[in-house]
Write a structure and sequence with these properties.
The complex is a heterodimer of chains A (510) and B (273). Chain A has 510 residues and is mainly α. Chain A is built from 21 helices and no strands. With 273 residues, chain B is α/β, with parallel strands linked by helices. Chain B has two domains: 123 residues, 3-Layer(aba) Sandwich (Rossmann fold); 124 residues, HUPs (Rossmann fold), CATH 3.40.50.620. A ten-stranded mixed sheet of chain B has the order 3-2-1-4-5-10-9-6-7-8, with helices on both faces. In chain B, helix 2 links the parallel strand 2 and strand 3. In chain B, helix 3 packs across helix 5 and helix 8 packs parallel to helix 10. Classes of the chains: A mainly alpha (510), B alpha/beta (273). Chains A and B meet through helix 21 of A and helix 7 of B.
């Protein structure tokens, strides 16, 4: 089959099967939410408990792989032609990276995670103690630091290399060409792409649902609007219209402008809290936690806690790792699509260090402000965060000047990150179901946008949203293996390029 | 002839039958002079009378075939001394009679043959089974694994030589799949063209060509087994990664993993004109 036929044919089984699968599961979640909840809870619990350690090993392997790629001779390879310049400037690139990879989650957990760990640490730590506070910050850095980016980068580096340098469609299956050859066009390749669509749609749908709940919480805190299903559904509807408009304008305008604006707003909000909050305390937390994170990176990476704190590790670290892996097809494809023209070294170091650095600052500022309120000012924000994580940010902001302005700004920030995440996810899903076209048809973008928002809304009403999230996370298990093989495929391809296609290589050999 | 002078290292514990079988094989390469070497681990070139007698006995077994025989006793590490003596005496190749060792034995005790394969820059012939089976009417093919490198200029005239007996020659190339379909198409076309070019250099033989994807060490041993090859000819490649070097070269792997006689050609081999 010729390349053109593969990319322009009308009937794409990935699209049709993904669509049927997604609609079927949403219907099941709506009609039998309890059954779906029971089934996914059992499967998810079994996976996390019995193979959870493999997520730790895999994430560490991904990190080692990224470091190796950045500093090996392969680091000089450009993700595009040798003379190509990066498609986006640094600020636009970092902004889009940050918006797609962390964005909404960081706003949600920036305050809530350190406070939750302080209030409910593993059993060997005393809740509310100084030790628990240090643990809370260290784990927050760890969960949101370089590991998620290493996971994303394995995916995005492979896709970027095979699409921009080797001229293949930007699909996950393309990365398997060195391993299985033309079978990527058959069922093995299609199964990988369908799984990616499945994980992305359900991951984004649950993120939309949870994000809408937090925006609702914010609106309640600022304007006193009554929280409830009506408000949440209205938020989903408004945001859906906005992100569909954004997605129609394409990457060059919509997502880029929104992401840049949002990072500026986030920086402004962070600077404000840093200045009006306990500044030196925050810097002290940043310095101390960075030191602990740096020195304990390897032990943290492999801490499966078999003797004590196992349940805590499964509930948090392993849950996060599975979440990042299930989120990686979406972020990986999106990050690949904005990274054309960068060298592997620049790509890895930029995407590994800059967003992680900003994340550390964010956690230090917001987590530090929350910890200061709890530990030194007698507030009980930690228990509130434990009860309702979505309201933690607004509760902390309320303790500082101009609370209504900063809360409103946070709602705007949440909404825009919400829009950029959903917008980029719509773009990526449409791309995956259009045989990897960088200009997927508008109808597919609208269709998938409506499907993921409807899924979020329907399952929020029926109570099946968490079940859906667990299904997205279950997809992480096969994806972990997919990603391990992607590393192998990429290494094979790069070795081939260096051996046989470079002037210094063995040109006379085949 | 390319393989006129052979260096045969003996440990003196070989049976006369094994040495005779080795002699039958080297005759097929057109060898006229055999330099037999015994390398003693003891210092000094003196050996016991018993060993001297055994050396003479085995030398006579080689000489029976009409090959001119000279002998030498040396000392030191056999793996270092054998390639050195081969160079100094102008040997065209080194011929070993294979003594099978398990993976554990090879790892713990080592193998002189394997070390010489790695260190020598002259071809090494490892005799395991007769190249021509006098009792069988059908002779298996001779398998030449090529990476289209310098060793082709040495291998092709040898393969074309009728002295190696009747039967087919299989030219095998194994390589990694290119990273994308377009590059793979080019690679595959180039491989086919190169194999056809080499095949045209063997007009006296029925030649078939094969291009198989995969690691050369796995592909060569699997194909040799599948085809029932009677002789495997393989070029010693300098194209081995650092990790690959630790695992041993493709040539070493082929020697260890096949049950057929193997001839390893080196890119540094001088070609007789």
């Amino acid at each position: 089959m010729s390349e053109s036929k593969r990319t322009t044919g009308r009937r794409d089984p990935v699209f049709i099967i993904s669509l049927i699968l997604v609609i079927t599961l949403v219907v099941v979640g709506f009609v039998w939410p309890e059954r779906l909840d029971h089934w996914t809870r059992s499967a998810h619990g079994a996976v996390i408990e019995h193979v959870g350690f493999s997520y730790l090993l895999a994430a560490f392997a991904f990190l080692v792989f990224c470091v190796y790629m950045a500093f090996s001779r392969y680091g000089t390879i450009r993700l595009g032609n040798d003379e190509e310049k990066p498609q986006y400037g640094y600020f636009a690139w970092f902004s889009m990276l940050f918006a797609a990879g962390m964005g909404i989650g960081l706003i949600f957990w920036g305050v809530a995670e350190p406070l939750t760990h302080l209030a409910a640490p593993p059993e060997y730590l005393e809740a509310g103690s100084g030790e628990a506070a240090a643990f809370a910050m260290r784990q927050s850095f760890f969960h949101w630091g370089i590991h998620p980016w290493a996971i994303y980068l394995v995916m995005s580096l492979s896709i970027a290399y095979f699409s921009f340098r080797r001229g293949m469609p930007p699909l996950i299956s393309s990365c398997f060409y060195p391993l299985i050859g033309d079978r990527i066009y058959g069922w093995p390749g299609k199964a990988i792409d369908i799984l990616a669509v499945f994980a992305t749609v359900f991951g984004v749908a649950t993120s939309l649902g949870l994000g809408a709940l937090q925006i609702g919480g914010g609106l309640n805190a600022v304007f006193g609007l009554a929280e409830g299903i009506g408000l949440t559904l209205t938020i989903i509807a408004v945001v859906t219209v906005l992100y569909l408009i954004s997605s129609m304008t394409g990457l060059d305008k919509g997502i880029q402008i929104l992401s840049k604006t949002n990072v500026l707003v986030a920086l402004a909000l962070m600077t404000f809290v840093l200045v009006v909050g306990p500044t030196s305390y925050i810097f002290s937390i940043f310095t101390d936690t960075l030191g602990q994170y740096g020195t304990q990176l390897i032990s943290l990476s492999l801490a499966s806690s078999p003797f004590e704190g196992a349940a805590w590790t499964q509930d948090w670290t392993i849950f996060y790792w599975a979440w990042w892996i299930s989120w990686s097809p979406f972020v990986g494809l999106f990050v690949a699509s904005i990274s054309r023209g960068r060298t592997i070294r620049e790509f890895i170091l930029g995407a590994l260090l800059v967003p992680a650095g900003l994340t550390f600052l964010w956690f230090s500022v917001f987590g530090g402000a929350g910890l200061h309120l709890q530990l030194h000012q007698g507030a009980s924000v930690a228990q509130s965060a434990l009860a309702d994580a979505s309201g933690a940010l607004f509760e902390v902001l309320a303790a500082y000047p101009l609370a209504s302005v900063t809360s409103l700004l946070s709602i705007v920030l949440l909404s825009v990150f919400f829009i950029t995440s959903a917008d980029s996810a719509t773009f990526v899903i449409a791309m995956m179901t259009s045989r990897g076209s960088f200009s997927p048809p508008a109808i597919k973008k609208i269709g998938w946008g409506l499907i993921q928002s409807s899924a979020a809304a329907v399952l929020l009403v029926s109570g099946g949203l968490e079940a859906l999230q667990r299904m997205a996370i279950l997809a992480a298990l096969p994806f972990m293996f997919v990603m391990l093989f992607m590393m192998r495929g990429l290494l094979k391809a790069l070795r081939y390029e260096f051996r046989y296609e470079r002037p210094s290589g063995l040109k006379n050999r085949i | 002839m390319i393989f006129e002078n052979v260096l045969i290292p003996l440990q003196l514990n070989e049976s006369s039958a094994r040495v005779a079988a080795l002699t039958d094989a080297i005759e097929l390469f057109g060898t006229t002079h055999a330099h037999i070497v015994y390398v003693s681990a003891d210092t000094g070139a003196e050996i016991s009378a018993t060993r001297q007698d055994r050396l003479s006995e085995l030398s006579q077994a080689v000489a029976k075939s009409g090959v001119r025989v000279t002998t030498e006793v040396s000392s030191g590490s056999p793996a270092v001394a054998i390639p050195r003596i081969a160079r100094e005496r102008g040997a065209d190749y080194i011929a070993f009679s294979w003594k099978a060792k398990s993976w554990v034995q090879r790892t713990l005790v080592g193998s002189v043959t394997q070390d010489v394969v790695r260190l020598s820059d002259v071809p090494v012939f490892v005799h395991k089974r007769p190249i021509i089976h006098s009792t069988e009417s059908h002779q298996g093919p001779i398998l030449y694994a090529t990476d289209f490198h310098e060793t082709d200029t040495l291998a092709i005239p040898l393969l074309n030589d009728a002295a190696l007996g009747p039967g087919e020659v299989v030219l095998l190339h194994s390589g990694e799949r290119a990273p994308d379909p377009v590059a793979e198409g080019h690679r595959s076309q180039k491989v086919e063209a190169e194999l056809a070019r080499l095949a045209s250099g063997c007009p006296n033989r029925s030649v078939t060509t094969r291009s198989v994807l995969g690691s050369p060490r796995r592909v060569i041993t699997a194909q040799a087994r599948r085809l029932g090859a009677r002789l495997v000819v393989v070029g010693k490649s300098d194209n081995t990664s650092r990790i690959g070097s630790m695992l041993g070269s493709t040539a070493e792997a082929v020697v260890n993993q096949t049950s057929m006689s193997v001839l390893i050609l080196s890119p540094d081999t001088r070609v007789a004109t």
